[in-house]
Prior knowledge:
Blueprint: H1 2-6, H2 13-18, H3 37-43, H4 45-55, H5 68-78, H6 85-88, H7 91-108, H8 115-132, H9 141-145
Helix pairs in contact: 3-4, 7-8
Amino acid sequence: MFGAAMYNAIPTLDVLRKRGMQIVNRCWCCKRREETISHLFVHCDMASEIWRYFLQPYKLDWVFADNLQIELWRWRENFGSRSGRKIWQPLPFAIVWGIWLERNNRAFNEKENSMDEVIRNIKSLIYLWGTAKEIFEGYVVEDLVLR
């Protein structure tokens, strides 16, 4: 999925239209703009709120680029100390994956989770991925997800 994101090949509505599908292009998350990879994962109101949620506690002002590829490279190069990178590096991937899951939930299941639920799901992904690398050794999921 992330390789596809890097090459603008995720099957968002704009990509499907370019492949010849006759569909109305409207973002499943904000329902106001056309769904493109950059819009969905970076500039959509839902995406912006999620990014702010994770950046705000650290008082980080981040000006987002126009596309996801640049954003992922910038993130990789700019965040965290050596130990901090263990958590900061997977964060944008968890955000992108969480947004994609929520988008698909809305598109295919006609169900919208609250913003709090989407953020909890992203935190759960971070915890799950972090436990595989023993980043959260000694912690339980509630420590990250609910606090």
